[in-house]
Specification:
By secondary structure, this protein is of the alpha/beta class. The chain is 40% helix and 15% strand. It folds into 2 domains: 4-210, P-loop containing nucleotide triphosphate hydrolases (Rossmann fold), CATH 3.40.50; 214-377 and 423-442, P-loop containing nucleotide triphosphate hydrolases (Rossmann fold, 3-Layer(aba) Sandwich). The strands form 2 sheets. A 7-stranded parallel beta sheet has the order 3-4-2-5-6-1-7, sandwiched between helices. It has a 7-stranded parallel beta sheet with strand order 10-11-9-12-13-8-14, with helices on both faces. The two termini are 36 Å apart. Bound molecules: adenosine monophosphate.
């Protein structure tokens, strides 16, 4: 495999890569960058967490850096299309990081916020435009953006773009692009509609296939916890307060669910934020920043809002609800184990979610071992010695033999329904303990 030094990249990019301490290209970078630099179209099948942003951002910056032109008002040279605001911001940040030694200007265009700043940025002129489809079309229709000068275009997370109903918008945008251009098309999955769209967009592309799930999923320890719906919150709390938990990203199926889970965690003393489509763009960015900086330990998100979250140090991804479609599972758990780090993904599965779980197992095949835990809840008497700590407390891991290790780890879980460390009644106490016991088994 070529090193970055052996790739045909200009010096300012090599410097930026050194600044970032990137030593070796990831597989998608090794396969994509040389062909992209040579001017070919690329059809990439890869998910986030594989380093695909740099795989397209570096060849683009290389092209722009070699030309050293002034940006032209309203007429960008490069367009990167992303399905969500979060991903668009992420891509834009990557362009800034890798392009920091180049004098290039960017504009970022997405919905949910006022358009004034975006229009001004386009009027000033930007070499690179990163955009979500809806707002881009709006600004094009109002005459603020002209795509006639586009030389390179990226469609990132094309599958999600289609899932979100952006196909008509994407087609309209494509119809405005010059025929002579270089195109990069990335998708985590290759359904027939994706292949059809790719065929319309690309000219004799080089196919770059990164083994499905091989990067993000292989490094992630995946577990499934079977429990009752009303045990989920307590189990979550136990995981978050356990010794090995750092930043924890939690997924719920609904926006309301995300709010409820976040509120309950917060009330039990664990700093938590929620992001979903009903929150304003500013609130979402604030929550993401707080999570990125570690000011909150837990971020509760819905699938769409979580696209593009790229935060190092997420130790656990918790599927509070099993996702409806198995691809979302891969996207969700790919938020941990990024760029070679390892991570833990724990999915909570109730009786009614087993069908979705089977679909996930089918998609992942034998590559990934889903550890299923059918353990019976413990009986009352076996846990009489349990002395829970107060809110959000953790207990140092015991190394002094099996039984004391067990006891100490059991103690480390405080019941969710307790504000002073004492359970309110026996039934709740039993329920909490059952959930904790299963979490403990899953944490092994
Ligand atoms: P992406 O798949 O583009 O979202 O990238 C996932 C993460 O990998 C990001 O945090 C990048 O900064 C990081 N990354 C990308 N390429 C490399 C590399 N060659 N070496 C180390 N980290 C990388």
């Amino acid at each position: 495999m070529k090193t970055f030094e052996e790739m045909d990249l200009i010096a300012p990019l090599q410097r930026a890569l050194k600044d970032e301490r990137y030593k070796t290209p990831t597989p998608i970078q090794a396969k994509t960058i040389p062909v992209a630099v040579s001017g070919r179209d690329v059809l990439g099948c890869a998910q986030t967490g594989t380093g695909k942003t740099a795989a397209f951002a570096l060849p683009i910056l290389n092209h722009l850096g070699q030309r050293n032109r002034k940006a032209v008002s309203q007429r960008p040279f490069v367009l990167a299309l992303a399905p969500t605001r979060e991903l668009a911001i992420q891509i834009s940040n990557s362009f800034s990081t890798y392009g920091k030694h180049l004098k290039l200007r960017q504009a970022l265009v997405y919905g949910g916020v006022g358009q004034g700043n975006q229009v001004r940025a386009m009027n000033r002129g930007a070499h690179i435009l990163v955009a979500t489809p809806g707002r881009l079309l709006d600004l094009m229709n109002q005459g603020h953006i002209d795509l006639a000068q586009i030389e390179m275009v990226v469609l990132d997370e094309a599958d999600r773009m289609l899932d979100m109903g952006f196909l008509p918008d994407v087609k309209r945008i494509l119809s405005q692009l010059p025929r002579k251009r270089q195109t990069f098309f990335f998708s985590a999955t290759m359904s027939p509609s994706i292949v059809d769209l790719a065929q319309r967009m690309l000219t004799e592309p080089v196919n770059v296939q990164i083994e499905s799930n091989s990067i993000s999923v292989d490094k992630i320890e995946q577990k499934v916890l079977f429990l009752k719906r009303d045990e989920k919150q307590e189990s979550l709390r136990s995981i978050v307060t356990a010794d090995d938990a750092g930043q924890v990203l939690v997924f719920t199926r609904t926006k309301r669910g995300a709010d409820v889970v976040a509120r309950k965690l917060d009330q039990s003393g664990i700093k938590t934020a929620a992001i979903h489509g009903n929150k304003s763009q500013n609130a979402r960015q604030r929550a993401l920043e707080a999570f990125r900086k570690g000011h909150v330990q837990v971020l509760v998100a819905t699938d769409v809002a979580a696209r593009g979250i790229d935060i190092d140090g997420i130790t656990h991804v918790i599927n509070f609800d099993i996702p409806m479609d198995p691809e979302s599972y891969v996207h969700r758990i790919g938020r941990t184990g990024r760029a070679g780090a390892s991570g833990i993904a724990i999915s909570f599965c109730t009786e009614s979610e087993r069908r979705e779980l089977r679909e996930i197992q089918k998609l992942l095949g034998n590559k990934v071992r889903l550890i299923t835990d059918h353990s019976q809840p413990p009986t009352e008497g076996r846990h009489r010695s349990s002395t829970p700590h107060g809110k959000g407390s953790t207990t140092p891991r015991s190394t002094s033999g099996r039984s004391s290790a067990r006891r100490s780890s059991r103690r480390s879980f405080a019941p969710a329904n307790s504000s002073n460390g004492k359970p309110k009644n026996k039934r709740k106490q039993r329920k909490g303990r059952n959930a904790r016991q299963r979490v403990k088994q899953a944490s092994k």
